[in-house]
Amino acid sequence: MKYQHNFNPTISDENIFSEIIKEKEYIGYYNLTSQNTTAFKEYATTVKQSNIVVIGIGGSTLGTYAIYKFLKHSKNLSKKLYFLETTDPIDIKSKIEAINLKDTLFIVISKSGTTIETISIFKYINSLIKCDKNNTLVITESDSKLSEYAKINQIESFDIPKNVGGRFSVFSAVGLLPLAIVGIDIDELLNGAKEVYNSFFNKDLKYNKLLNKARFFVEYKNSFNMNVVFSYSSRLEGFNKWYIQLWGESLGKIDINSTRQGLTPIGIIGPVDQHSFLQLIIEGKRDKTVTVIKVDDFHSNLKIPNIKLDGLSELDYLNNLEFSSLINTQADATIESINNLNDIPCDVITIDGVSERSIANLMYEYELLTSICAKFMYIDAYNQPGVEAGKIILKDKLKDSIK
Amino acid sequence: MKYQHNFNPTISDENIFSEIIKEKEYIGYYNLTSQNTTAFKEYATTVKQSNIVVIGIGGSTLGTYAIYKFLKHSKNLSKKLYFLETTDPIDIKSKIEAINLKDTLFIVISKSGTTIETISIFKYINSLIKCDKNNTLVITESDSKLSEYAKINQIESFDIPKNVGGRFSVFSAVGLLPLAIVGIDIDELLNGAKEVYNSFFNKDLKYNKLLNKARFFVEYKNSFNMNVVFSYSSRLEGFNKWYIQLWGESLGKIDINSTRQGLTPIGIIGPVDQHSFLQLIIEGKRDKTVTVIKVDDFHSNLKIPNIKLDGLSELDYLNNLEFSSLINTQADATIESINNLNDIPCDVITIDGVSERSIANLMYEYELLTSICAKFMYIDAYNQPGVEAGKIILKDKLKDSIK
User: Fold this and answer.
1) Residue-level pLDDT at A2
2) Tag placement on chain A: N or C end, fewer CB within 10 Å?
3) What rounded mean pLDDT belongs to chain A?
4) Residues of A with CB below 8 A from B252's CB?
């Protein structure tokens, strides 16, 4: 008789690290930091249109949106970026009505090439304006049906590497090409990602930080089954959404022991959600970890003016305070009030500023953290088998309803 | 010797209902359904400006935003509504730059009258344009400092009843007045709320439905500590945010037995989040209930056109399908795939259409559900003591930094 088991052994940091090193050979996102961006930048210089509409959903848009939303008001961008991603008819109509389609480049992004939402919306666009090589660009896997469409119609097409999953694709053509077109410095993005890459793989600061954090999250996943990211800048709203997809879809899996795993991501924004979710964190059940994200330098000197309002003199102590100081002090007060409780795990990430490098630092760090957590959890971070059943049901229902 | 205890007894529906009936005597939101709206409508007719800027945060804006976001593309609204709520300097600057301040009515909303974010932003506005009775309106408690400011400056001021909490205030002046000004039918809103009020208090359909749902959520709160609202319309994004505040801040409390309570609200949007959060629901830990919200009639005949794209013929079965059918079939497929698993509690709310009555139905139902859950949990739904400590720390830090 032979007794086999795969109970989780105690895992050393070295074990996990060597698993990641192995994975780096065949999972593509890790090495996007060192890719050549010349083709993206060259294409970007040829774009004449003022509006860039990305048609895509999930991993095809969230990362791009996160970076664009973070930077758009702080950079002098030459073009506007829009996203069409839902099948909500009111949303489609209202967004399209606000855009001059004749001055628009459409970027159709779908890894599989046959995403229902994306192709349906693209067909609708085709009924409004002729889509051809002059106003359309495709980003997809090299041998997809969408790539075939592009070839037949001589439409320029960029590849999503097969080993780069949608939610890990922000530093591939999926994110870099639209961002380069609107005027974001994509080399600086990659520099930012590379800094984190180097720090981790050279076993510098990020090595301990990320391994410890992942170990804690997984070790205490049954006590703290939610991970709250509390971002103190409205500019990070897109980052929060991207994080939710990355974390939820990568870690919500059945492990090698057929056990359901998962850490639930929650994204909130400060100070707005001090007036919403914070009460639950402070007095509710101890089922959440909290990561506060701060922006060190908003590059803004916007101030509360030295104005006295009748009756409201008790707030005059705020006069002459910069809003950037106010929001960062609000973050610090929240951190202190959480830490004073002594029973809510809380860490703080401070990014340098509102720059390509800073947002890429943050996003690449979260990609690595996700991969490491998945290793601790004995799951595959890169597939999403759970949503396949729904797709088959949808197809059956639609075919039935059309018959 | 006397042995006292307050272990939770088994609670009958009748007990809870009579507690709610008692509470209705002193908690103000219940009876907002039957208030007189004449003053709001009369004020609305006097507003000449094209832009309405609400300055407020949390309960002062979320409900109004939810209704406005739901209806704005489906109604022919006469004015545009904006919200200034965060202290993020980039957000404040970019929003204000996009608005013609000379053609703007500023509505300053703060229940306490001294909300730091609100007064700070209002002061900043004062440095850009003269704010007086011609372009400013105040909504606050009758004896607040902000009310004093309004009186001294002869600025019109509407009251927030003392017994109506911020997150339950959408059907008070807080929500109704800005919405009336931009052209929303506020009487229809109240009719929608009243329908649910009647159905519950007359022990009609909503009585069993809400009591059963609340009982289930509270009974299984340790197994299912998260409640996901999965809204199949981008127009419900504001509703999700409002729900998160209502649910999180009302139920995240220490109960009468000094035990931490709380159910964590999560708001996601379909079909977009099928490509994000759904994988976690389907394969992750069984720690979530799911409520799917559908819109029966989008009042839209927007179609996928009968267009064939080279290479993409496998999706031609979608041709001629209305987008509203597609999104609702997507919702049905998600519901079926969840129900097939047999171990995720799931209910479905279908609202009639994109109308005042429908969104008010939904919001008032959630207010009642929140109150009922709080009764089952032996907590006070209407306070928020957990955020007070942070406010004191903030004030100390700010005063220190300014010295």
Assistant:
1) 66
2) N
3) 96
4) 279-284
Closest residue to A333, CB basis, from B89, B334, B390:
B390
Same domain, A238 and A360: yes
Do A247 and A351 have their domain in common? yes
Reading the block at residue A400, the tokens are 């039935």
Domain boundary at A149, A184, A219, which? A184
Angle at B393 between CA B388 and CA B398, to 5 degrees: 125
**Which H or E run includes A34?**
none
On whether both B196 and B163 belong to a single domain, the answer is no
In this prediction, residue B389 carries a pLDDT of: 87
Instruction: Report pLDDT digits (tens) over B208-231.
Output: 999 999 999 999 999 999 999 999
Distance CA B347, CA B341 (A): 14
* B311 neighbourhood in chain A, CB within 8 Å: 145-149, 151-152
3-class SS at B226? strand
* CB-based contact B334:B270 (threshold 8 Å): yes
| Contact residues on chain A for B284, CB-CB shorter than 8 A | 248, 251-253, 260-262, 264
> In this structure, are A180 and A303 located in the same domain?
no
Residue from B54, B69, B111, B123 whose CB has the most chain A CBs within 10 Å, to mutate? B123
Q: How does pLDDT run across B15-74, given as a tens digit for each residue?
A: 999 999 999 999 999 999 999 999 999 999 999 999 999 999 999 999 999 999 999 999
pLDDT (0 to 100) of residue B162:
97
The three-point CA angle A54-B93-A72 to 5° equals 25
- Cβ distance of B93 and A73 shorter than 8 Å: yes
Element (H, E) at B101: none
* A87 within some domain: yes
Q: Give the range of the structural domain holding residue B220, as residue numbers without chain letter.
A: 188-376
Query: pLDDT digits over B277-295, tens only?
Result: 999 999 999 999 999 999 9
Residues A166 and A215 in one domain: no
Contact A309 B122 (CB under 8 A): yes
- Is B329 in the same domain as B203? yes
CATH number at residue A280: 3.40.50.10490
CB atoms near residue B102 (< 10 Å) = 9
pLDDT tens column, A275-294: 999 999 999 999 999 999 99
> Residue B271, preceding bond cis, omega within 30 degrees?
yes
Say whether pLDDT at A9 is over 90.
Answer: no
Task: Please identify which residue in the block is written with the tokens 């097939």.
Answer: B340
Answer whether A319 sits within 8 Å of B123, measured CB to CB: yes
Residue whose entry in the numeric block shows the structure tokens 């059945």 = A254
Res. A401 pLDDT band, cuts 50 70 90: confident
Q: List CB contacts (< 8 A) between A391 and chain B.
A: 333
Nearest by CB to residue A312, choosing from B146, B269, B287, is: B146
Residue B215: both structure tokens together: 């009982």
Distance from the Cα of B162 to chain A's closest Cα (Å) equals 18
Q: Do A387 and B145 touch (CB under 8 A)?
A: no
Q: Any residues with CB less than 8 A from the CB of B98 and at least 6 apart, and which?
A: none
Answer yes or no: do B90 and A354 touch at CB < 8 A: yes
CB contact under 8 A, A318 and B272: no
**How many Cβ atoms are within 10 Å of A94's Cβ, its own excluded?**
15
A335 and A369 in a common domain? yes
Higher model confidence: residue B10 or residue A268?
A: A268
Nearest chain A residue to B334 by CA: give it.
A390
Residues B348, B252 share a domain:
yes
Total of domains in chain A: 2
ipTM (interface predicted TM): 0.96
Q: Could you tell me whether strands B157-159 and B136-140 are parallel, antiparallel, or unpaired per DSSP bridges?
A: parallel
In this complex, which of B117, B147, B248 lies closest to A276 when CB atoms are compared? B248
pTM given for the model = 0.97
The per-residue pLDDT for A87 is 97
- Is residue A309, in this structure, part of any structural domain at all? yes
Q: Is B60 contained in some domain?
A: yes
Boundary (domain end) residue, out of A184, A205, A227: A184
